[in-house]
Design goal:
Helix 3 crosses helix 4. This protein folds into four domains: about 110 residues, no CATH class; about 150 residues, no CATH class; about 170 residues; about 70 residues, Roll (SH3 type barrels). It has a five-stranded mixed β-sheet with strand order 7-6-5-8-9, sandwiched between helices. The protein has a five-stranded antiparallel β-sheet with strand order 17-16-15-14-18. The protein starts with 7 loop residues before the first helix and ends in a 10-residue tail after the last strand. Helix content is about 40%, strand content about 15%. The longest helix is centred in the middle third of the chain and has 49 residues. It has about 500 residues and is α+β, with helices and mostly antiparallel strands.
Length: about 500
């Protein structure tokens, strides 16, 4: 546990420290989930031995003879757990799946839970006339062959509370259902004590003195009851859905407000083993770049506190080399999401490097510097060349980061290969390409987009195309550009913004 902070992990996540013993009975926990829970309880790094001791002490049944080996197999490099340079287990607090995990293990309730009250439909007594709602529930699109014509007509008159002609009664019944007999009401024989009574003008009225009046109401309400319950349930779920949607909109607005307020930076360093000769910070919002030499690293560390999001290749290792705690920021690691790609059945594989992915994604031919060239600059003391090369690398990393956050994937292009690899660059509240395009279509506003290779740092919109979005599909857009309808590959879009909008997502 971090000294001076009772639980750095849980404070960052906004949860109470978990007690593993209390979660065992209520959840069917897996071993890896228990690993994460124990680390959250500890609030800091743990050795594998201490981790295993705490899991064993909690009473968790791992069903294994060798808990240490089982923990390592259960982890196998999975998020949100990682091992630092000293071999201790730590939590990656920037993992996007934390909300789902916390809900799964019972450490955070769902934010859209709606409490539903039990259905209770109370119907009036038989001495109360039928209401329009009861009549509609009993008759609407129902089969009424089990209910006599006389009772059907009496129900219409009881609900209307007025005399009606035979044609009016027949029209009312036909408006409810066609699943009924067609005998004209006006030709029903008039019997003593009947529910219906006729006058000399041809009007038919309800005989409220009839002994069958209460029985008619009871029969109609019996038909209506299950429908009324079903409709009450439907209305309850409709209101619950509206409430959940409103909560979701409020939460999304809150997340988007937070996303706009975040300051982001690309952090990149000279690739020297075990130490750094220089590092560069690219300020995304202010569009500024500065290189810090070794003697200026104290200033660099002071500059980092102004940012909330840091992105870079193996960013966590870079921060640890600089001597700062990685958990103080939301980190976006721009390393490849997988190490290799099998090319054929013979087992030939392609090693996926950051340079390969950045080049395929952005169209830049040499996105990152040759480590040997960097070492040469350092050996010769050519700091100007070193700074320019590091800043060029940072520009490439920024374009790569922007694309991954925009699309949720990056592009692997090599020979005949052209595939998309999913990445976890975006944060809650950040607008994706899909969000921007849907907003543009909804508001019927044109967008400006850069298609093909990544835009330049100095003038990012110099190659922008202004188009109206007509249709959106998984792979292509149908747009209108200067009156001409065209198709655009979605994965060729490098940057986009809604034309004339005062607020834009950072990814532009």
């Amino acid at each position: 546990m971090t000294e001076g902070n009772p639980n750095a992990y849980c404070d960052r996540l906004g949860i109470d420290p978990p007690v593993p013993e209390e979660l065992l009975d209520s959840r069917d926990l897996k071993l890896f989930e228990m690993v994460v829970i124990v680390l959250l309880e500890n609030g800091g790094p743990m050795s594998v031995e201490d981790l295993c001791d705490r899991i064993d002490a909690s009473g968790f049944d791992a069903r294994t003879w060798d808990l240490r080996e089982s923990v390592l197999k259960a982890w196998h490099g999975s998020e949100p757990v990682y091992r630092d340079s000293e071999g201790s287990f730590r939590i990656n607090l920037s993992w996007s799946g934390f909300e789902r995990f916390l809900f799964r293990v019972g450490l955070r309730p769902s934010r859209t839970v709606v409490q539903l009250t039990p259905i209770e439909v109370v119907q009036p007594g038989d001495d109360v006339p039928l209401s329009a709602a009861e009549l509609d529930a009993a008759f609407r699109d129902r089969s009424l062959f089990s209910l006599s014509w006389r009772r059907q007509a009496a129900a219409i008159l009881d609900s209307a509370n007025q005399a009606m002609t035979a044609d009016e009664i027949e029209t009312a019944m036909a408006g409810f259902t066609r699943h009924r007999g067609t005998r004209p009401v006006g030709k029903l024989p008039q019997e003593p004590g009947s529910l219906l009574q006729h006058d000399e003008t041809g009007l038919i009225s309800l005989n409220r003195a009839s002994s069958d009046l209460r029985g008619m109401r009871r029969a109609v309400r019996k038909l209506a009851r299950p429908v009324l319950i079903q409709r009450a349930n439907s209305e309850r779920w409709r209101l619950a859905h509206e409430q959940a949607e409103e909560q979701r909109r409020i939460e999304l607005a809150r997340l988007r407000e937070q996303a706009v307020a975040r300051r982001r930076a690309i952090l990149h360093g000279a690739p020297v083993p075990d130490e750094l000769e220089a590092a560069v910070i690219l300020d995304v919002e202010n569009r500024s770049i500065r290189t810090y030499n070794r003697e200026e690293f104290s200033q660099l560390r002071s500059a980092l506190v102004h940012f909330q999001v840091l992105a870079g290749v193996h960013i966590r290792n870079l921060l640890q080399t600089l001597g700062v705690a990685p958990d103080d920021w939301h980190l976006v690691d721009l390393k490849p999401p997988q190490k290799s790609r099998r090319l054929n059945r013979a087992g030939k594989t392609l090693r996926i490097t950051p340079e390969l992915l950045i080049s395929g994604t952005t169209g830049m031919s040499r996105p990152l510097a040759d480590p040997n060239k960097i070492a040469e600059y350092i050996a010769r003391g050519e700091r100007g060349k070193l700074a320019r090369r590091l800043e060029s690398d940072a520009n490439a990393l920024h374009a790569f980061y922007r694309y991954g956050a925009l699309h949720g994937c990056v592009r692997l292009k090599w020979g005949f290969l052209d595939e998309m690899l999913g990445v976890d660059f975006e944060m809650p509240g950040e607008m994706s390409l899909y969000d921007i395009l849907k907003d543009a279509m909804r508001s019927e506003r044109p967008v400006e987009m850069v298609v093909g290779t990544a835009p330049g740092w100095e003038q990012p919109w110099s190659r922008a195309r202004r188009v109206d979005v007509l249709e959106l599909s998984p792979h292509f857009l149908v747009v209108r550009e200067q009156g001409v309808t065209q198709y655009i590959n979605r994965f060729e879009i490098q940057a986009i913004r809604i034309a004339g909008a005062t607020e834009q997502p950072w990814v532009i």
